[in-house]
Amino acid sequence: MKPVVQLIEEWTAFEDASNEHSVEAFCRYYLQKQHPKPQYTSEHIMNGVNLIKTIGRILKAYSVYFRSAVNHNDMPPSEGFYYLHSLSQLGEVKKSDLINDMFVETTTGMEIINKLIREKKITERTSPDDKRAKLIKITEKGTVILHEYYKISTKAVEMMFKDLSDEVLIDCNEMLEHCAQRNLSLAVELKNKPFPQMYERVMEQ
Protein backbone atom coordinates (compact mmCIF):
# COMPACT_ATOMS: atom_id res chain seq x y z
CA MET A 1 0.00 0.00 0.00
CA LYS A 2 1.34 3.42 -0.92
CA PRO A 3 2.10 5.64 2.12
CA VAL A 4 -0.30 8.36 0.97
CA VAL A 5 -3.16 5.83 0.68
CA GLN A 6 -2.34 4.46 4.13
CA LEU A 7 -2.29 8.01 5.49
CA ILE A 8 -5.76 8.70 4.06
CA GLU A 9 -7.12 5.50 5.61
CA GLU A 10 -5.57 6.37 8.96
CA TRP A 11 -7.13 9.84 8.79
CA THR A 12 -10.56 8.33 8.10
CA ALA A 13 -10.23 6.06 11.15
CA PHE A 14 -9.05 9.04 13.19
CA GLU A 15 -12.11 11.09 12.23
CA ASP A 16 -14.37 8.27 13.44
CA ALA A 17 -12.52 7.98 16.76
CA SER A 18 -12.01 11.64 17.68
CA ASN A 19 -14.06 14.82 17.91
CA GLU A 20 -11.05 17.07 17.23
CA HIS A 21 -9.84 16.84 13.63
CA SER A 22 -6.67 18.93 13.70
CA VAL A 23 -3.35 17.80 12.25
CA GLU A 24 -1.76 17.97 15.70
CA ALA A 25 -4.45 15.71 17.17
CA PHE A 26 -4.05 13.26 14.28
CA CYS A 27 -0.29 13.05 14.84
CA ARG A 28 -0.80 12.20 18.50
CA TYR A 29 -3.48 9.66 17.58
CA TYR A 30 -1.26 7.97 14.98
CA LEU A 31 1.77 7.78 17.26
CA GLN A 32 -0.32 6.27 20.05
CA LYS A 33 -1.56 3.58 17.64
CA GLN A 34 2.03 2.50 16.98
CA HIS A 35 2.41 1.35 20.57
CA PRO A 36 2.02 -2.41 20.93
CA LYS A 37 -1.35 -3.68 22.18
CA PRO A 38 -1.16 -3.95 25.97
CA GLN A 39 -0.82 -7.32 27.63
CA TYR A 40 -3.31 -7.75 30.45
CA THR A 41 -0.71 -8.50 33.09
CA SER A 42 -1.05 -7.67 36.78
CA GLU A 43 1.25 -4.69 36.21
CA HIS A 44 -0.96 -3.36 33.41
CA ILE A 45 -4.06 -3.76 35.59
CA MET A 46 -2.39 -1.94 38.52
CA ASN A 47 -1.38 0.90 36.20
CA GLY A 48 -5.04 1.17 35.22
CA VAL A 49 -6.10 1.10 38.87
CA ASN A 50 -3.67 3.90 39.68
CA LEU A 51 -4.97 5.99 36.77
CA ILE A 52 -8.56 5.53 37.92
CA LYS A 53 -7.54 6.55 41.46
CA THR A 54 -5.93 9.72 40.10
CA ILE A 55 -8.99 10.57 37.99
CA GLY A 56 -11.20 9.87 41.02
CA ARG A 57 -9.17 12.24 43.21
CA ILE A 58 -9.37 14.95 40.56
CA LEU A 59 -13.16 14.57 40.37
CA LYS A 60 -13.49 14.62 44.17
CA ALA A 61 -11.46 17.83 44.47
CA TYR A 62 -13.41 19.48 41.65
CA SER A 63 -16.67 18.43 43.30
CA VAL A 64 -15.63 20.10 46.57
CA TYR A 65 -14.80 23.36 44.79
CA PHE A 66 -17.95 23.31 42.65
CA ARG A 67 -20.37 22.49 45.48
CA SER A 68 -18.85 25.22 47.63
CA ALA A 69 -19.20 27.76 44.80
CA VAL A 70 -22.82 26.69 44.19
CA ASN A 71 -23.66 27.13 47.89
CA HIS A 72 -21.86 30.48 48.04
CA ASN A 73 -23.93 31.79 45.12
CA ASP A 74 -27.21 30.50 46.61
CA MET A 75 -27.81 28.28 43.58
CA PRO A 76 -29.97 25.11 43.58
CA PRO A 77 -28.16 21.78 44.24
CA SER A 78 -25.58 21.04 41.58
CA GLU A 79 -27.20 17.77 40.38
CA GLY A 80 -29.61 19.87 38.31
CA PHE A 81 -26.64 21.44 36.50
CA TYR A 82 -25.48 18.12 35.08
CA TYR A 83 -28.95 17.23 33.81
CA LEU A 84 -29.46 20.65 32.23
CA HIS A 85 -26.01 20.52 30.64
CA SER A 86 -26.61 17.08 29.11
CA LEU A 87 -30.06 18.06 27.88
CA SER A 88 -28.69 21.23 26.26
CA GLN A 89 -26.25 19.03 24.33
CA LEU A 90 -28.78 16.34 23.41
CA GLY A 91 -31.62 18.62 22.31
CA GLU A 92 -35.21 17.33 22.56
CA VAL A 93 -35.09 13.68 23.61
CA LYS A 94 -37.00 11.04 25.53
CA LYS A 95 -36.59 11.00 29.29
CA SER A 96 -34.93 7.60 28.99
CA ASP A 97 -32.29 9.07 26.66
CA LEU A 98 -31.29 11.68 29.25
CA ILE A 99 -31.27 9.08 32.02
CA ASN A 100 -28.98 6.85 29.96
CA ASP A 101 -26.70 9.79 29.25
CA MET A 102 -26.47 10.49 32.99
CA PHE A 103 -25.73 6.84 33.90
CA VAL A 104 -28.25 6.79 36.74
CA GLU A 105 -31.02 4.44 37.80
CA THR A 106 -34.40 5.11 36.18
CA THR A 107 -36.13 6.05 39.45
CA THR A 108 -33.37 8.50 40.42
CA GLY A 109 -33.29 10.08 36.98
CA MET A 110 -37.07 10.42 36.75
CA GLU A 111 -37.20 12.09 40.17
CA ILE A 112 -34.67 14.76 39.18
CA ILE A 113 -36.18 15.29 35.72
CA ASN A 114 -39.69 15.71 37.14
CA LYS A 115 -38.32 18.18 39.70
CA LEU A 116 -36.74 20.23 36.90
CA ILE A 117 -40.07 20.12 35.02
CA ARG A 118 -41.91 21.45 38.09
CA GLU A 119 -39.32 24.22 38.33
CA LYS A 120 -39.99 25.03 34.63
CA LYS A 121 -36.34 24.45 33.70
CA ILE A 122 -37.39 21.57 31.46
CA THR A 123 -40.56 21.24 29.40
CA GLU A 124 -42.18 18.03 28.20
CA ARG A 125 -44.62 17.00 25.49
CA THR A 126 -46.03 13.76 24.13
CA SER A 127 -43.91 12.31 21.35
CA PRO A 128 -45.71 12.55 17.98
CA ASP A 129 -44.14 9.21 17.03
CA ASP A 130 -44.95 7.34 20.24
CA LYS A 131 -47.89 8.49 22.37
CA ARG A 132 -46.52 6.54 25.34
CA ALA A 133 -43.27 8.50 25.40
CA LYS A 134 -42.56 12.03 26.62
CA LEU A 135 -40.08 14.32 24.91
CA ILE A 136 -38.21 16.81 27.07
CA LYS A 137 -36.05 19.84 26.30
CA ILE A 138 -34.44 22.65 28.24
CA THR A 139 -36.48 25.86 28.60
CA GLU A 140 -35.33 29.46 28.40
CA LYS A 141 -35.38 29.58 32.20
CA GLY A 142 -33.28 26.42 32.33
CA THR A 143 -30.80 27.88 29.85
CA VAL A 144 -30.39 31.03 31.95
CA ILE A 145 -29.76 28.94 35.07
CA LEU A 146 -27.36 26.70 33.15
CA HIS A 147 -25.22 29.68 32.12
CA GLU A 148 -25.05 30.76 35.76
CA TYR A 149 -23.78 27.29 36.62
CA TYR A 150 -21.21 27.57 33.82
CA LYS A 151 -19.81 30.74 35.39
CA ILE A 152 -19.41 28.93 38.70
CA SER A 153 -17.95 25.83 37.06
CA THR A 154 -15.36 27.96 35.24
CA LYS A 155 -13.98 29.14 38.58
CA ALA A 156 -13.76 25.59 39.90
CA VAL A 157 -11.97 24.43 36.74
CA GLU A 158 -9.50 27.32 37.05
CA MET A 159 -8.73 26.25 40.60
CA MET A 160 -8.38 22.60 39.59
CA PHE A 161 -5.90 23.02 36.75
CA LYS A 162 -4.12 26.28 37.56
CA ASP A 163 -0.67 24.60 37.47
CA LEU A 164 -1.11 22.80 34.14
CA SER A 165 -0.41 24.31 30.72
CA ASP A 166 -2.88 24.17 27.84
CA GLU A 167 -0.57 21.73 26.05
CA VAL A 168 -0.65 19.29 28.97
CA LEU A 169 -4.44 19.54 29.29
CA ILE A 170 -4.93 18.97 25.55
CA ASP A 171 -2.56 15.99 25.51
CA CYS A 172 -4.22 14.37 28.54
CA ASN A 173 -7.67 14.84 27.06
CA GLU A 174 -6.73 13.45 23.67
CA MET A 175 -4.97 10.44 25.17
CA LEU A 176 -8.08 9.50 27.15
CA GLU A 177 -10.82 10.60 24.72
CA HIS A 178 -10.94 7.35 22.77
CA CYS A 179 -11.08 5.34 26.01
CA ALA A 180 -13.93 7.54 27.25
CA GLN A 181 -15.98 7.35 24.05
CA ARG A 182 -15.57 3.59 23.68
CA ASN A 183 -16.50 2.79 27.27
CA LEU A 184 -19.38 5.26 27.48
CA SER A 185 -21.11 3.75 24.45
CA LEU A 186 -20.54 0.22 25.73
CA ALA A 187 -21.67 1.10 29.25
CA VAL A 188 -25.02 2.42 27.98
CA GLU A 189 -25.49 -0.69 25.85
CA LEU A 190 -24.55 -3.14 28.62
CA LYS A 191 -25.58 -1.47 31.88
CA ASN A 192 -28.42 -3.94 32.53
CA LYS A 193 -26.50 -7.05 31.44
CA PRO A 194 -24.95 -9.60 33.86
CA PHE A 195 -21.31 -8.81 34.58
CA PRO A 196 -19.83 -11.91 32.83
CA GLN A 197 -21.64 -10.94 29.63
CA MET A 198 -20.58 -7.30 30.09
CA TYR A 199 -16.93 -8.30 30.62
CA GLU A 200 -16.85 -10.57 27.56
CA ARG A 201 -18.41 -7.93 25.32
CA VAL A 202 -16.03 -5.17 26.41
CA MET A 203 -12.90 -7.32 26.17
CA GLU A 204 -13.67 -8.53 22.66
CA GLN A 205 -13.54 -4.98 21.28
UniProtKB/TrEMBL annotation:
Organism encoding this protein: Mucilaginibacter lappiensis
Name assigned to this protein: DNA-binding MarR family transcriptional regulator
Keyword Ion transport: no
InterPro entries for this protein: HTH_MarR-typ, WH-like_DNA-bd_sf, WH_DNA-bd_sf
Pfam families the UniProt entry points to: HTH_27 (PF13463)
GO molecular function list: DNA binding; DNA-binding transcription factor activity
Residues annotated as domain HTH marR-type: 48-204
Keywords: DNA-binding
Entry-linked PROSITE patterns: HTH_MARR_2 (PS50995)
Keyword Plastid attached: no
Entry superkingdom: Bacteria
